[in-house]
Amino acid sequence: MDSPGSFNPYAPPRSGGIVQPEEDLRLDGDLASRWQRLGGALFDTLLIFIARAPAYAGVSSMAAVAQKGARLKNPFYLYMHAGRWGVVTAVVSAALLAVQWWLLVKRGQTVGKMVARTRVVRTDGSRADFVHVLALRDWPVFVLGILAATSSVLSIIDMLDYLFVFRPDRRCLHDLIAGTKVVRVPNAW
C-alpha cells in the first residue's frame, strides 16, 4: 500500500483489488514447487486422455491395436484404426492443443497450470512471448514426445528433460533452452 504522503494525482487508476494480468506476472524468485509443476502436468495429461477417449471407444480390441501398433512404430496407429472415432479424437485433440497453446501465449498458463496456480515467465520475471513459450519451450518437447514412441533413445532423452526439475532452480531442460521458469501465481483465474 502507498504511504499517506505518496498520492500521485497523475498516476493511472488502480484496479481496486482486481488483479490485472500484467500486475501478477512479476514474481521474481517465487518458483513453483515441484509438486505444483507435477500437479499441473498431470492435470494437462488427464485432459489429453479425456480428449483421446473416443478413439478407445472405437477400437474393438485394444490388445490387438497395441501389438500391431508397436510393431509398426506408428504413434498415430490407434487413431487410424478407430475409424470415425479416430477422426473425432483427432479433432478434439487438435482443439485441446489449440486452446492450451493459445492460453500459453496469452497467459503463460495451460489449464493444468491454472489449476496448479503456476505460470511460465521469462527468467527475468517478464511475460514469456510466443517464441519463448511455444517455439522454444513447448513445441520441441511435443515433437520429441511423438518421436519418442518410435525410439527408445529418444524416450530416454524425453524423460531426462523432466528430471532437470530436481536442480536447485527447478528448471527443466526445456526451460533452460527457452530461457523461462515456472512461478507461483496467487490468483490463477
Protein model, in words:
The chain is built from eight helices and two strands. The relative contact order is 0.15. By secondary structure, the protein is mostly helical. The protein is globular and about 70 Å long. It has helices at about 35-55, 60-70, 75-80, 85-105, 110-115, 130-150, 150-165, 175-180; strands at about 120, 180-185. The chain has one domain (about 35-185). Helices cover about 55% and strands about 5% of the residues. It has a two-stranded antiparallel sheet.
Low-confidence stretches: 17-29
Mean pLDDT, to the nearest integer, reads: 78
Annotation field: number of helices = 8
Q: Write down the secondary-structure element order.
A: HHHHHEHHHE
Separation, N- and C-terminal Cα atoms: 23 Å
Cα radius of gyration in angstroms: 20 Å
Strand content: 5-15%
What can be said about the biggest beta sheet?
2 strands, antiparallel
Q: What is the helical fraction, as a range of percent?
A: 55-70%
Taking strands numbered 1, 2, ... along the chain, how are they ordered across the largest sheet? 1-2
The helix-and-strand class reads: mainly alpha
Total number of beta strands = 2
Overall 3D form:
globular
Give the tally of structural domains.
Answer: 1
